[in-house]
Amino acid sequence: MLVDLVDQDRYADSGPPHEQLRWLREHDPVHWHPGEPGFWAVTRYDDVVHVSRHSELFSSSRRLALFNEMPEEQRAMQRLMMLNQDPPEHTRRRSLVNRGFTPRTMNALEPHIRDICDDLLDKCSGEVDFVTEIAAPLPLYVICELLGAPVADRDKVFTWSNKMIGAQDPDYAASPDEGGAAAMEVYAYANQLAAQRRGAPRNDIVTKLIQPDENGETLDENEFDLFVLLLVVAGNETTRNAASGGMLTLFDHPDQWSRLVADPALSRTAADEIVRWVSPVNLFRRTATADLMLSGQQIRENDKVVVFYSSANRDSSAFAQPHTFDIGRDPNPHIGFGGGGAHFCLGNHLAKLELRVLFEQLAVRFPRLRQTGEVRRLRSNFINGIKELPVRLN
Ligand code: HEM
C-alpha cells in the first residue's frame, strides 16, 4: 500500500510524498492512516477548506500532541497559544494581535524590508549557501525588527527558533527536549522585551500589543510572551523555507527563472505560486469534536484529523494544471497559509511581501544565479524545509 505519510526520514530525503498524495486525492481522499497514533489524512482541497472553516467540528485545542507526547510543562504552555485554541477563546486573542498585523502596517514595512534584503545581498558574492546567507536571516531580521529586538540578540533568537522547529532533526537539536528548553528561553526573552516597553514605550508592535485596545482589552503578560514565542516559530521557519524552497523550484524550472529575470514585477504572483508549490507548512492537525461524516467517511469523536496543505495545493479540482509551476498564475487560490477560518495565517501579508521583495531583488541583481551543489532537506514532516542549498550568485 501507501508509504508512511509522516515518516520524518522520507521528508529529509525527498520532501512530501506527492505521488502518494495524488493517489489518495483520487482514490481515498479521507484516508485512515494507521500508526501510533492513527489519524485521518485529508488530502483534497475542498475537504481541507471545510475542516479549516469548521472549528466547532474540528478542534485545534483537543488532544494537542500529534505524533509525540510532550512533557506536561510544554503541553500547558502550548495550550495557551492561540494556534491551539478554539473560538471563542481564540477570537479574543486573535483580534488583539490583529491590531499589529493589518495590511496597512505590513505595507508600511516594505521600504524597510527592501533595505534588509539589500544589505543581505550586498554581503553576498560568488558561492554561498542560500539558506544560511539569505533565506534564513531575512525573516529572522524582519521578526526581530518587528519586535524591536536589538541586533545583537538576533543570533540567539535564530538558534532558539531552529531548535524549536528542528526538534526532530539532529543538526538543529540534540533531542526534542532541547526544543522545549529553547521555547522556555524565548518565553523569558519576550517577557524582558515587554518589561522594557512598559518602562519606555516606543512606536513598535510590542508597545502596541501590550497596550489596551479600544475596548480596554489587553493581552496579559503570559499571553504576550506566548504570542512572541508563536511569532518566532511561525514567522521565521515558514518564510525561510518558502524562500529556499522557492529558489530550488526556480532552479528546477529554468524557464520560470528566465521569465522572472525578464520581468521582475512577476515576483508578486511568483510569491503566491511559490507558497502553493512548496507548501512550507505541510500539514496541520485537528481533532473531531463529534461523530461526523467527511467526504463519505465516518469519523469518530476524538479522532485526529490531519489536513495536508501540500496535497490540497495540487488538487486539479481547484487549480488548472496543478502540476505546472507557473510564476504568473493568477488567480491563485492556494491554501498554503491555511484553508481560511479562525486560524488563517496572521503573517500572510508579511510573508508575501518578504518573498516578493526577495525574488524581485534576486532577479534584478543576480540574473545568472545557479545551483552548485546538492540540497539538504530538514527532517520534519511538519515544515517542508531546506537546510542547505549551495548557489553561485554571479
Ligand atoms: C498560522 C502558514 C508566515 C504567523 C499559520 C497556518 C499556516 C501558516 C498553514 C495555520 C492555518 C490554520 O491552522 O488554519 C504560513 C506560511 C508562511 C507563514 C506558509 C510563509 C510563507 C508567517 C509569518 C508570521 C506568521 C511571517 C508572523 C509574522 C502565524 C500565526 C499563526 C499562523 C501567528 C497562528 C494564527 C492563529 O492561530 O490564529 N501560518 N505562515 N506566519 N501564522 Fe503563518
TrEMBL record:
Q: What is its EC number?
A: 1.14.15.29
Q: From its record, what is one biological process in GO terms?
A: cholesterol catabolic process
Residue ranges of coiled coil: none
| Pfam families from the UniProt entry | p450
**What InterPro entries does the entry give?**
Cyt_P450 (IPR001128), Cyt_P450_B (IPR002397), Cyt_P450_sf (IPR036396)
Gene3D superfamilies this protein is in? Cytochrome P450
Q: Which UniProt keywords apply?
A: Heme, Iron, Metal-binding, Monooxygenase, Oxidoreductase
Task: Kindly list the GO molecular function terms attached to this UniProt entry.
Answer: cholest-4-en-3-one 26-monooxygenase activity; heme binding; iron ion binding; steroid hydroxylase activity
State the family it belongs to. Answer: Belongs to the cytochrome P450 family.
What this protein is called in its record is Cholest-4-en-3-one 26-monooxygenase
Originating species: Nonomuraea endophytica
Upper classification of the organism: Bacteria, Bacillati, Actinomycetota, Actinomycetes, Streptosporangiales
